[in-house]
Sequence to fold (368 residues):
Amino acid sequence: MRLEEIDLYVTNNCNLNCKFCSVKAGSYHDEISLDRIKELIDEAVKYGLSDLHMTGGEPTLRQDLEEIIEYAVSKKLNVRLITNGTLLTKRRLDRLCDHGLKSIMISLDGMEEYHDKVRGVKGSFQKAFKTIIYAIEKGMFVRVNSVAWKDNCDEIIKLLDLFNQMKVNVYSIFLGSPLGYAIEQKDNTIDSQGWRSFCEKVKDIVHKKEFFTKVVMEKGYLYSDEDPKTILGLGGRGRGCYQITNFTDFLLIRSNGDVYPCVFFSNEAEPIGNIHKESLKEIHDHFQKNSLYKKFGEYPEKCVSCEKVKYCHGGCRGYAKLCNGDWFDKDPRCTNSTKDGAIPLCPIVKLNINSDMIGGSSEQVLEK
Fold:
């Protein structure tokens, strides 16, 4: 067993009401105790854990967050806090940094009016924006992320230039998926050609001048005029659902203790275990034999005859379930049979806009 990264949902509670929350924050209120989190970290370190991402819900609602960070840092882990940024006063951020926090990821999905609307709380933009400024002033590694939909692409373009001026280290732009509460946003999702056009627009801006900020977008699709060899051998989570049980270098642990191999399964699929009932090693061993997830490695029947299935492996099983109600159906994003066709990639596959590098995770495309 080799474990590199854990996304730890330290709480499912949240102070916002986001229309597209992928994990349905607020749907339950269980939290893992501080002692169990420490035990979990100790066990994970034995299997090579290097990166711990603390998220939620809104993780800063935990009053013992400083203790969690301090303990994780003492185990030589790279700790990142993923937050909406609205509750982090300068004083609280100072405290978190004093306990060892060096990296933070904050969400902004548009300028003030749009962001406040989709986050469901007026004033959320200004609070998050101030947190970004505080974090930059403190010399932290600052990453900002936006979720792209049809109705906020122009907003993201405005943020792109703003973050570069501010010297944000990384700007991540995720392609909105109908996941969690965002199932209501199906009509607002960007199709393959729309996403290609938007990526090209961002690329034109980044390449026209020296860009301090590294811009990472989801690759989303492999288009008919692109060399399919560029996506062969991707590591990390971008390998996709194909042979998912063969790789356990990443785990997602929800605040009720349920464990999943990907966020696209964390609402609809059965967990691969629960840390209140099993050790990580036991969860890993049971995962290797899990009949549902092992079947994810098989090509959908509708894809078997397609010559490009060896590149997409049938697409994302989560998308098939969310949109078609069947884990084993064809990925609904596939347009390979059309003139300007595209095959869908694992949503985790990333593209570094500055360098054009493709990788199986943000970390991979930011290595150079």
About this structure: Residues 43 and 279 are 8 Å apart (CA to CA).
